[in-house]
Design a protein that fits this description.
single chain; alpha+beta; seven-stranded antiparallel sheet; 13 strands
Length: 363
């Protein structure tokens, strides 16, 4: 089962052009598979304000009602466990009473890094649909297991409106990287975003499993990636090493503490201000990679201020640090960023910074 079999260009959505609007949806998939580990970004999405349990029937009713207000015409109930969901008939009845079409999809999607079917997938579902897991997490599609938010802490409309990932995927002509962007099928096919993400770690990369892209596989940038060229800082001020993972307005990066780095004390320990600089450089890496262009220029940016810095430990020469960042508020080029610096899963520092990055006026 491929996404395009249900959501692709062969499905008749009369108002598909309207879905380009930031909060517009035409179809919603509710998935009833078991809970999954979505990685570091859930640390910022679930800050302890809600329990990681299945949505109640009342909460699912609310999700369906919210989706109806966004223009949804069809609710698809999916997953291996969908038929065993005790209130499935009631959910279907509730949706139909709202004049929504319903469908059941109990087969697995075929979204593998290696696949026997490598024809162009002709999938454009990201422009008009998304998934909500039975635990409340909103995903772009089955292959892109990157949570955009959780309906227990945000309205569905706000999650969609604020999502940089969905904004990118709804603008493939300007955002998709590499040969997929210039393919003659770009109007009806974005490549499989799930396959691209599984192979490269980048949801905007070209789909290298498509038969059309086999000859350009060696030219594609994949994560982890050295930050040289994607952040404005140059040695010796560049103190992070690699961009490791992307998520919704968030990223994880790595830094190896070296003796000749700035902010190193005489005893080899790291000055507290270095943690703020690591957070700033990590969000710059996220912005730079997301907006990578053919010139390779990194975006200009500035650290404007910091607050709520909490120091829980010290790093020293030779330590390998992990930096996780999340841009939770933004206005134009300005953003408020939460950051966590850790070593071997032990948090050393956490805090917030205010940054400015030069952005494309058309973004």
């Amino acid at each position: 089962m491929h996404c395009s079999d249900t959501f692709g260009s062969g499905k008749a959505y009369d108002s598909m052009n309207e879905s380009v609007q930031k909060t517009a949806l035409l179809a919603l998939e509710i998935n009833f598979d078991s809970s999954r580990d979505f990685g570091f970004s859930t640390i910022f999405i679930n800050d302890g304000s809600f329990s990681d349990t299945r949505l109640t029937e009342e909460e699912l009713h609310d999700v369906i009602t919210q989706s109806k207000a966004l223009g949804v015409r069809e609710i698809i109930f999916s997953g291996k466990e969908v038929l065993s969901y005790i209130s499935l008939k009631e959910l279907i009845s509730f949706a139909r009473n709202l004049d929504l079409e319903t469908a059941l999809l109990k087969d697995d999607y075929l979204c593998l890094a290696t696949s026997g079917k490598n024809d162009p997938p002709f999938c454009v579902r990201h422009r008009f649909s998304c998934i909500i897991t039975s635990y409340g997490y909103v995903l772009p599609c089955p292959g892109l297991e990157i949570p955009l938010g959780n309906v227990r802490s945000q309205k569905l409309a706000d999650i969609i409106k604020d999502s940089e990932i969905l904004s990118d995927l709804k603008d493939p002509i300007n955002k998709i990287k590499g040969p997929c962007r210039y393919c003659e099928n770009i109007g009806i096919c974005c490549g499989c975003r799930g396959r691209a993400y599984l192979v490269t770690g980048d949801y905007l990369a070209s789909d290298l499993m498509c038969i059309k892209n086999k000859s350009v596989e060696h030219d594609t940038v994949s994560l982890p990636l050295p930050v040289d060229g994607i952040i404005p800082q140059k040695p010796p001020m560049c103190i992070i090493d690699t961009l490791d993972t992307l998520a919704e307005r968030s990223a994880s990066c790595s830094a190896l503490i070296k003796k000749d780095m700035p902010f190193i004390e005489d005893d080899g320990s790291v000055d507290n201000v270095a943690y703020l600089e690591m957070i700033a450089q990590s969000i710059a890496a996220l912005n730079g990679f997301r907006n990578m262009n053919e010139s390779g220029a990194s975006p200009e940016g500035y650290l404007l201020g910091a607050k709520n810095l909490v120091i829980l430990g010290r790093a020293t020469e030779g330590d390998r640090l992990s930096i996780m960042v999340f841009k939770y508020a933004r206005y134009g080029g300005f953003g408020i960023v939460k950051g966590i610096v850790s070593k071997n899963n032990q948090v050393l520092a956490r805090g917030e910074i205010k940054v400015w990055h030069k952005i494309d006026e058309s973004d």
